[in-house]
Amino acid sequence: MLSFAQKLLSSGDTRAQQWLLRDCDSNHPTCHPAGPAGPAFRPTRLIDLREYPQVYLAEKLDPGIIDLRYAALSYTWGLSMPDSGKTTSANLETHQRSIDIDKLPRTVKDAIDFTHNLAIPFLWVDALCIIQDDKSDWEREAATMDSVYSKAYLTIAAASSDHCDGGFLQTSYDKYEIPEARKVQMSDPADQTRTWVTSFTDNPLFSRSWTLQERELSSRILHFTRTHVVWECRQSACAYIRPRKSWVLTEPTLMNMYPDHRSIEWPFRALDLPSDKTGFGFQPSGRALPKDPTPLRFETWHKIVENYSRRKLTVPSDKILAIAGVAKALQSHIGSDYLAGLWRANLINDLLWHRKGDAITHGEQDPTSYYAPSWSWAWTNYPIVFLRPDNVEKIDAEILEGFVPRSKVESGRGYIKLKAKVLEVSTEHGANLLLDSGVQHYNKRPETRRNGVKEFTICILMSKPPTPEKWDFYWRDDNHGTLIPAAPSRGLGLALRRVEGIPSTYLRIGYAEDVSMDLFDGTNPDEITII
Fold first, then answer.
1. d(CA 517, CA 101)
2. In tens digits, what is the pLDDT along the chain, a chain of 531 residues?
3. Which three-class secondary structure string do you get for 249-277?
4. Which of 86, 132, 203, 286 is the least crowded, having the fewest Cβ atoms under 10 Å away?
5. What is d(CA 313, CA 301) in angstroms, rounded to the nearest whole number?
């Protein structure tokens, strides 16, 4: 018996996908405003499928071609990509004449077959459309990745395999693994545990760094997971799922999905359409970019970065690049300069990140190489979280200047200049220090001086008000309680290390919280530089 995804390629079984595309073209202007002929942007190279099964790499397309739509493939290479699946300087001319489909990795071959069956004339695959042994070509093409995926007529997400030869059309769907599509109700807890959303997010593409950007930027995606084929655009989501009372899948069954944020964690994308009569029912707990409040937009970015930091990245130097397209797409909505993963207009809050856990998510860093400024989350090799402080009395620092080189033409390293209160302290002083190395120093714990650096400079960014003396009564007992003494104002900020030989210049080495502001009595703000 043919697999579920294979049946989508058999005679007539692509009608549902074609209907989705046509319906989206006609009724969702926010999903693909360029129209059915495709956008003005063209990737440098595309795989030309118009003479399928004879395909080749096209670099200069005839301007007279009417239909210039292309699909883009989102997938994972795995440990490596075989030479037969890559374009290099040695085989570029050969691929421009012909690409042998039978020698391609299974996932790439499936993408070619599926794109052809949807009558889309071109396909973009990174391994074939970027010259893999040409560093300048790779850098140039990687810089356009945001346009490649955002302008694609359709993105095909091969989410059922964690390597390039796994394919996505031959996946077997057991009758017990494929639930019936049902609308999720808050009053039905059973649906919450067996919703297709869990299956959708539990796939290899959700664990890789580059694929976060590919999903965020794509207007329309068909996800081939192990148990579903999921359609996702800016205004709708639905799934092909096997009918409950049939052991033989005769044709795809399309069921619209209306995920409810209050009962399930649907992974909204930042640019998905916010709440209105035609789009998703956006709730504040989701990640879709809010229409109005700027602080919530910055929080949306924080959630994206936290997700990104948990994903795996093979090449550490790609850390900034692999999310740059998302930042570029959001910049017009946020309205701020972008500085190595942080936003100038929200820099005080953006600096308050710290390492979370010990799971190394990226390839080993070369200690002699420069990846990012020390104040950027992109510097660390671990998952991070942003502090979301409440009850903040005031901002205690002022950003004076920020610079990050945007190209190789601009020399130098990134830095920020700020005016803030700074003080050199030892681990005996009143502060909790969470170092980026993983070492933690807690308030009044002299024994922790055995670990790591023994002296730090604390830079205060914001502070909380003092708390008065109060009684804390035991639950349901007003006659017994504990007198909680008054506490002074507490500060939040950065743990720094002075750079030898450069006045007032520091490296970030961690995060400081619960800092007793009494330490800073009589201290005036200084102008410092953090690199």
1. 67
2. 444 444 444 433 566 677 778 888 888 887 875 544 455 788 999 999 999 999 999 998 887 888 999 999 999 998 889 999 999 999 999 999 999 999 999 999 999 999 999 999 999 999 999 999 999 999 999 989 999 999 999 999 999 999 999 998 865 444 333 333 333 332 333 343 345 677 788 899 999 999 999 999 999 999 988 877 888 888 777 776 544 433 333 334 444 444 443 334 668 788 886 544 343 433 333 456 666 667 888 988 999 999 999 999 988 889 999 999 999 999 988 889 999 999 999 999 999 999 988 777 767 777 778 889 999 999 998 999 999 887 777 899 999 999 998 765 456 789 999 999 999 887 666 678 888 887 777 665 433 333 444 578 999 999 988 878 777 655 555 566 677 777 778 899 999 999 999 999 999 999 998 888 888 888 999 999 999
3. CCCCCEEEECCCCCCCCCCCCCCCCCCCC
4. 132
5. 19
Rounded Cα–Cα distance for residues 506 and 422 (Å):
11
Phi, psi of 22 (to 5 degrees): -65, -40
- CB atoms inside a 10 Å sphere around CB 399: 18
Q: Using CA atoms, how far apart are residues 140 and 96, in angstroms rounded to an integer?
A: 20
Q: Which residues of 364-383 are buried (b: 16+ CB within 10 A; e: fewer)?
A: eeeeeeebbbbbbbbbbbbb
- Beta-bridge partners for 492: 462
Going from the C-alpha of 220 to that of each of 72, 142, 232, 312, 454, the distances in angstroms are 10, 21, 6, 24, 52
Three-state secondary structure call for residue 224: strand
**Residue 254: HSE in the Cβ half-sphere, 13 Å Cα cutoff:** 15
**What is the 8-class DSSP label of residue 181?**
P
Cβ 229 vs Cβ 252: under 8 Å: yes
- Give me the residue label for tokens 């039978």: 102
pTM above 0.90, yes or no: no
The structure tokens listed for 132 are 């893999």
